[in-house]
Amino acid sequence: MPVAGIIAEYNPFHNGHLYQIKAVKEAMPDTPIVVAMSGNFLQRGEPACLDKWTRAKLALQNGADLVVEMPVSACVQPADRFAFNGVQILASLGVSDLFFGAEHAEYDFAKFARLVKEAHGEFKTYNESYAATFQKAVTEKIGHPVDSPNDLLGLAYAKANLNLGEPLKLHPIQRKQAGYHDLILKKGTIASASAIRSHYAKGERATLTQYLPQESAQALRTQKLLYWDDFFPYLKYKLLASSPEELQNIYGMAEGIEYRLKDQLERAKPTVTFDEWLKAVKTKRFTYTRLSRLACAILLNLTPKEVAEYNEQPYLRILGFDQAGQEVLRQAKKTSTCELIAKVSQDDKNKAYRVDYRAGKIYQLQNMFEQDLKRAPIRIFS
User: Fold this and answer.
1) Tens digit of pLDDT for each residue in 138-193?
2) Domain segments of the chain: what residues?
3) CA gap 342, 379 in Å, rounded
4) What InterPro entries does this protein map onto (predicted)?
């Protein structure tokens, strides 16, 4: 049977996400929708504002049929790797069609993927990032830049799909009203997740209701949104207590950046914020996003070995489903190449799932709710 898929973060779930789900239902009526969603730490290297269970429930209440967690090792990654893992997870669940937002939905992303399949950034000099050099290669191959955030991710999905043998049909959806990085609440009912988080942090919460489904608005009234500064004290301790040699064992550490990470923290005032420290560390080679992902890896003590283990044997956590989603799972259990984890056992937390269990416990330091043990998938049946 056809199955629609979305790769998402829902940080938090807002009207733009609801618009996307409605567009999927319009394009493929009566087709189950599977969401591969980042867990408590996200692709750009930041903690989720609401925990994975809350965000999964919001997705299910607003039209998703099955929500699964993309493991930490799969999602705290550069766009190409994140996209590959997301496409792989959806394909393993029997998804046939991938829907994603794009600033230019008219682009033929599958064609672009074939054009840039062999494109790589030069990355030989120390005065620019890999992302910048790769963008130059993409522009040369395609004939124009593909540099808007969602277009770039769409291209990454298309490349991943191509590399996996094109198991999914691609369906770009035109992004409406708000840009990915917009921090302004524009007229209408759609705002970016960045703008919603920014205004919430400023205490301007009453203005957010029009941009959120009812269930999300309720979640923002009853739960505290989390930001990097909530976890920064733990990161500072880890950096100050670790030697440069110990930090070299963290996934993504390269080019001696561990010395700069420590040095800028030791020079900083005790009141330094995460963003202030990140700006002090930044270089032309290390973008904010790359450094933020690295900070996340340090906080979670993520090692290259653990990421390699996930790559060798992918798995996913089932967060919730309805009746249609249950049928997708029933079929997937027969054919999936990914291990499907419904409940985390003592064995899981010490073996395959240990990175995500550790991440959940660290997130729980601020969230205060158990994230894994004794948590069963959410079931929403009519």
Assistant:
1) 888 898 889 899 999 999 999 999 999 999 999 999 987 666 567 789 889 999 99
2) 4-225+309-379, 228-306
3) 12
4) Rossmann-like_a/b/a_fold, tRNA(Met)_cyd_acetate_ligase
Count Cβ atoms within 10 A of the Cβ of residue 282 and give its class: 0-12 exposed, 13-18 middle, 19 or more buried.
middle
Count CB atoms within 10 A of the CB of residue 269. Answer: 7
Class of domain 4-225+309-379: alpha beta
Quick one: 17 exposed, middle or buried, by C-beta within 10 A (0-12, 13-18, 19+)?
Answer: buried
Pick from 61, 1, 7: nearest CA to 173 = 7
Kindly report, residue by residue over 89-111, the tens digit of the pLDDT: 999 999 999 999 999 999 999 99
pTM: 0.95
Of 13-17, 123-127, 169-173, minimum mean pLDDT range? 123-127
Tokens 């999927």 found at: 24
| Buried-exposed string 109-128: b where 16+ CB fall within 10 A, e elsewhere | bbebbeebeebebeeeeeeb
Distance spanning both ends of the chain, measured CA to CA = 22
Evaluate whether 170 touches 153 at the Cβ level (below 8 Å). no
Residue 38: phi and psi, rounded to 5, are -60, 150
Q: Which residues sit in the known binding site for ATP?
A: 7-20, 101, 150, 175
11 exposed, middle or buried (CB, 10 Å; 0-12, 13-18, 19+)?
Answer: buried
Q: What is the pLDDT of residues 279-334, one digit of tens each?
A: 999 998 899 999 999 999 999 999 999 999 999 999 999 999 999 999 999 999 99
Annotate 186-210 with three-state secondary structure: CCCCCCCHHHHHHHHHCCCCHHHHH
Binding residues: 7-20, 101, 150, 175
Cβ atoms within 10 A of the Cβ of 322, count?
21
SS3 212: coil
pLDDT digits (tens, 9 = 90+) for 187-196: 899 999 999 9
